Every structure is written in C-alpha cells, then in structure tokens.
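Note to self: keep these together.
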Amino acid sequence: MTETMAPNVLRTAYQKSVAAYWNAEKDPVNIRLGEVDGLYHHHYGIGDYDPSVLEGPEETRDERVIREMHRLETAQANLLLDHLGRISPDDRIMDTGSGRGGTSFMAHQRFGCHVDGVTISEQQVAFANGQAEERGVADRVRFHFRNMLDTGFGTGSLRASWNNESTMYVDLFDLFREHARLLEYGGRYVTITGCYNDVTGGRSKAVSRIDEHYTCNIHSRSEYFRAMAANSLVPIEVVDLTASTIPYWELRARSSVATGIEDPFLTAYREGSFHYLLIAADRV
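Structure:
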C-alpha cells in the first residue's frame, strides 16, 4: 500500500488537545473491558443485557457485569463489520480513529485481509502495534500515527474503511473527502456514531454535556448525509441503533466503571435529542 510521510500530524491546537487526552487516557471502562479477552474497544455496546449478571454472588457481580458490557461492545463492532460488504484476503481496509485496535483485529480475524489503523494518539499506536506483535499478525495489521483527514495512503487503495465513534472529532466534509479519495470505486464506508437530532433544534443540554466530557463536537444527523453527498458517498443502509444501545448504558450506570456521563447519554437518547446511527455508504 502506497504511504507517504505525513510529518505534521497534529495541525491545530484542538487536535493537539484531543491527542493529549487520548495519550493520557487510562479509563477503566476501556481497559478493564479489554482485559476480558484482549480486544480493547473505544466505543459503546448494543443489544439487551442478560439480567442474571446483576444477580448471584455479590463478590463476583462486578466481574459478570464487566464481561457482559464487553460482550455488548463486541456485538457493536461485529455489526459494523457485517456492513463492510465482501472483503477478500488480498484487500486492504482501514480503521480510521482506531484506538487500541479492537475492531481492526476483529476485521482481520474475520476477513484475513490487510488492515491499517490510524489515530492521532501515539500511545494508542504503540499499544495496538504491540498487540499485533503479540497476536502474530503484525505483517497484516498495522497502526499508524496519522491524521484521519490526511492519512498519506494511496488514492483508491482501500476496499473498505470505517469510523467507529470517531467522526465527532473532525469536520465531516474534510473527513468524507479523504475517505472518498482512499476508497476504490464501489468501495464501502461505514460509520457508527452519535448525532444530534435536527428536529429538536440544535444540541440539547444533555448532548452538550457529552461534548464537554469527551472534548468533542457532535454533529447533526443531517450533516452526515450532506457531507456524504458532497463527496461521492451514497448511503446504502441506515440503521437507527438508539433503542439498541440504551440497555448498554443502563448496565454501565450500575457498574463499577461508570464515569458519570451515563445519565446524559440516557437522557439524550430517551428524550430523542440524540441518535445512535449506523450508516453504510458506497463510493461512486
């Protein structure tokens, strides 16, 4: 895969602040869940949780809840991969905003293809590449300190690419322009993301609290489709996952790894000011 050097990865003060946040991040909600099976995710879960995890011996309750939360977040990643289309072992795909690499390793395990992950956190790159070495897949799965708006990879070099809860850190028009450049004709782009509901007239108080907590800038639902249309990405499927993610947040609120942001998420989802969407689009 053609790759050129991109020395100025962090272009703005905001990007530097986001990178600093993730370089320092050691949140138990990410670390402890990843320790369950070695797949470290940086996203949320979908599906109903098993209520029995809240029952039984108190001394093992926390372990049961952690395992169940991890099962739900792995189900979310599997749903994203389900929408990437047909991928062959010779194809290259990209995890954009790859975090500690969980979805990238799942993609390689499923498709056997080359996977490149990009993130502006040097700590995440080092961790994920270490994981690739430990798993014996470093020749097929690699992580790079790159800006998702200017990755340095070759035009038309990808069969598929995705963002899993990372679009809220960048301008969508710039992001989708880069994805369209990277994808071959007919290639597939998928995102799972939270977006605010245009119908409610802007960011609600709960959505604004989420923005503040994660130092991000949540986009409106309509902006995703405007930015895709402007960059030769045509949605083929849109799935509203809002109802499916509420159980994860209800369980997380009762867990030992709750961070205090659970109530704003639950409020925003229940009041309808915030949606959790999967969007799959083809490059035309």
